[in-house]
Amino acid sequence: MIRANVEIVRIAVLASGTGSILESMFGAGLRIEVVLIDRPCRAREVAAAHDTPVVLVERSSYGSDFDRVAYTHAVVDALEPFDVDLVVMAGFGTILEKPMHDAYENRILNTHPALLPAFPGWHSVRDALDYGVKVTGCTVHVATLAVDSGPILAQEAVPVLPGDTEESLHERIKTVERRLYIDTIKEIIERGHVL
Ligand code: GAR
Fold first, then answer.
1. Which ligand 1 atom lies nearest to the CA of residue 112?
2. pLDDT digits (tens, 9 = 90+) for 54-69
3. Residues 22-56: tens digit of each pLDDT
4. Which of 40, 44, 132, 146 has the largest CB neighbor count within 10 A?
């Protein structure tokens, strides 16, 4: 087995939102070569503050006319010059198709704000609250073509508290994700699983 360390492994982070997980990754010393975003978002400012290239591959549409395969090819092409070993999704809002998984097979990670296989999809925090669960959490997993169902690498429970809103619960989950995701990424790098 080839051993590696966090200074060597070249990472692309895919983000669409506030970029708070991305921010923690910079703080943890991961070697982030590029941040790819699918829409203008705060993640762009986070990357710029760390002198890291940002590539915007903007979605042309959020409707049924969206050409997901063409978009995926554009993402693969945009990442290619950065020669990354690992792709890390941190709140990326576009499902990518087969060309991405062909290019980075078993080298795409995701964090999801629920205990998969419970509450997959984009509204997992709201869905967990609506269902009335007393415990939810987050899942770090390998991203596969089947959305939110790749091999699970780590999970941690987060209690739902009386009076929680979607925002308060999601923020409590993200506090865990910012630690668990980074610890898991470091662990798989140090085990030599991505080189
Ligand atoms: C995180 O909670 C992450 O799990 C979620 O987006 C948030 C990103 O937070 N991702 C998904 O829901 C993917 N299905 P951030 O923008 O503050 O880093």
1. 4
2. 999 999 899 999 999 9
3. 999 999 999 999 999 999 999 999 999 999 999 99
4. 44
In this prediction, residue 1 carries a pLDDT of 45
For residue 120, the CA-to-ligand 1 centroid distance in Å is: 12
Domains of the chain from N-terminus onward: 8-105 (3.40.50.170), 111-195 (3.40.50.170)
Query: Taking the CB of residue 100, how many other CB atoms lie within 10 A of it?
Result: 22
Residue identified by tokens 């910079």 is 26
Q: Is the separation of the CB atoms in 136 and 169 below 8 Å?
A: yes
